[in-house]
Specification:
Layout lengths: L3 E6 L2 H13 L5 E5 L5 E3 L2 E3 L1 H10 L17 H8 L10 H15 L4 H11 L5 E4 L6 E6 L2 E4 H7 L6 E7 L8 H7 L4 E6 L4 H10 L3 H7 L4 E4 L2 E2 L2 E2 L4 H7 L6 H7 L6 E5 L12 E5 L6 H20 L1
Parallel strand pairs: 1-2, 1-9, 2-5, 9-10, 10-13, 13-14
Antiparallel strand pairs: 3-4, 6-7, 6-8, 11-12
Helix pairs in contact: 1-2, 1-12, 4-5
The protein binds guanosine-5'-diphosphate (GDP).
C-alpha cells in the first residue's frame, strides 16, 4: 500500500522509529512533526535537541553508543570552553556545534526554524519532510519538588532527579501550528499517523498542545498508531517511567494506551509484556519494539504500517 505517513516524534526514541519509517517508505512518503518544547538558548546559540536527533538519525549521523548527538564526534570546543571557565553542563560536540552556530545566525537574520531545518535536511540528503511543530517558541517547564524548572535545567543540569508534579508548555496557547504539518495531516492520501515511542509528557504532549494539532489528527482520514516507550515497566532511556510514577500513573504500556485513548486507533505494546487490558476504541497488539539495530527499526516501522493498513481495510 502507498500513501503518505505523518509521524510525531521527540528526540532519541522517536528518531529511531522515524528512521525506520524513512527506510521503509519511498522518498516523498514521510513527514515528521518534531517537538520543539525542549529548545533553548545556550551560550547565545539556539539549540533544538529533538530536531537535531531526528536529523542525525535520518542522515545516518547519530551516535548509537552514546544514544545522542553525532557519531565520530570530537570535543575540542568543550575542553577549551571548560578551560575558560565556561558553562560545561550541556555538552556540545565540535560537529554538533556547527549545526547550532549555522542555525543561530540564520535565525538571527529572520529565517524561521522550519526553513533552517529544511536547509539542513537538504544539505544532509534527507528526503523526508522534517517539521518543527511550530516556528513560535513553546517552552516545556516542569513543576518539580524544587519548584518550576526550565526543561533543560531539569533534564540535563539536574539529571531528572527532582520529582515531577506537573508539566506545562509555556507559549503553546499562542503558538501557530506549523502550516506544512497541518497540510500533511489533511492530505487525502494519508496512510497513517504514527505516534513514535517518545516520552508522552515532554515529547508528544507538547506537540498536541499546539492549537489545531490535536484537532487535525482527529480530523485526519487515516488510522493513528502509537508505539509504547515503556518496555517491561521501564523506559528504554530517559525519565518517562520515573515521571509516570511521580505523576501517580502505573508504569506500563497500558497506562500509555489509556493516555492516548481518545486519539489513537492502535496501540503497539512490546511483545515481552502482557497485552494491556482492553481500551475502548483501541486495538492493542504486541510487537518487538526495542530498536537496537537498523533492521529492528525497519521491522517495527513495517509492523506499525501493517497495523494501520489493517484498520483501514477492516
Ligand atoms: P528525548 O526527547 O530525547 O527524550 O526523546 P524521546 O521522547 O523521543 O525518547 C525517549 C523515549 O523513547 C523514552 O521514553 C524511551 O523509553 C523511549 N525509547 C527509546 N528507545 C526505544 C526503543 O528502542 N524502543 C521503544 N519502544 N522505546 C524506546
Amino acid at each position: 500500500m502507498s500513501g503518505h505517513v505523518v509521524a510525531l516524534s521527540g528526540g532519541v526514541g522517536g528518531a529511531k522509529l522515524a528512521q525506520g519509517l524513512d527506510l521503509a517508505l519511498a522518498a516523498d512518503e514521510l513527514t515528521i512533526i518534531v517537538n520543539t518544547g525542549d529548545d533553548f538558548r545556550h551560550l547565545g546559540l539556539y539549540i533544538s535537541p529533538d530536531i537535531d536527533s531526528v536529523v542525525y538519525a535520518l542522515s545516518g549521523r547519530a551516535d548509537a553508543v552514546r544514544g545522542w548527538g553525532r557519531r565520530e564526534e570530537t570535543w575540542t570546543f568543550m575542553a577549551a570552553l571548560k578551560e575558560l571557565g565556561g558553562a560545561d553542563w550541556f555538552r556540545l560536540g565540535d560537529g554538533d556545534l556547527a549545526m547550532h552556530v549555522e542555525r543561530s545566525w540564520r535565525m538571527a537574520q529572520g529565517e524561521p526554524l522550519s526553513a533552517v531545518t529544511a536547509r539542513f535536511c537538504q544539505a544532509l540528503g534527507i528526503t523526508a519532510q522534517v517539521l518543527p511543530m511550530s516556528d513560535d517558541a513553546v517552552r516545556t517547564r516542569v513543576l518539580s519538588s524544587e519548584g518550576w524548572l526550565d526543561f533543560q535545567d531539569y533534564f540535563v543540569a539536574r539529571q531528572c532527579q527532582p520529582a515531577v508534579r506537573e508539566v506545562a508548555f509555556a507559549g503553546a496557547a499562542q503558538a501557530a501550528a506549523q502550516p506544512a504539518a497541518l497540510a500533511a495531516l489533511a492530505r487525502t492520501d494519508l496512510r497513517a499517523i504514527v505516534i513514535c515511542p517518545s516520552n508522552p509528557f515532554v515529547s508528544v504532549e507538547p506537540i498536541l498542545a499546539v492549537p489545531g494539532m490535536h484537532a487535525a489528527i482527529e480530523a485526519a482520514r487515516a488510522p493513528v498508531v502509537a508505539v509504547t516507550p515503556i518496555i517491561g515497566g521501564k523506559a528504554v532511556k530517559g525519565p518517562a517511567a520515573k515521571m509516570m510514577a511521580e505523576l501517580g500513573l502505573p508504569v506500563s504500556g497500558a497506562a500509555i494506551a489509556q493516555r492516548y485513548a481518545n486519539l489513537i486507533d492502535v496501540f503497539i505494546s512490546d511483545e515481552r509484556d502482557p497485552l494491556p487490558a482492553a481500551v475502548a476504541g483501541v486495538r492493542i497488539q504486541g510487537a518487538q519494539t526495542l530498536m537496537r539495530s537498523s533492521d529492528d527499526r525497519v521491522a517495527l516501522a513495517r509492523a506499525v504500517l501493517a497495523a494501520a493498513d489493517a484498520v483501514r481495510d477492516a
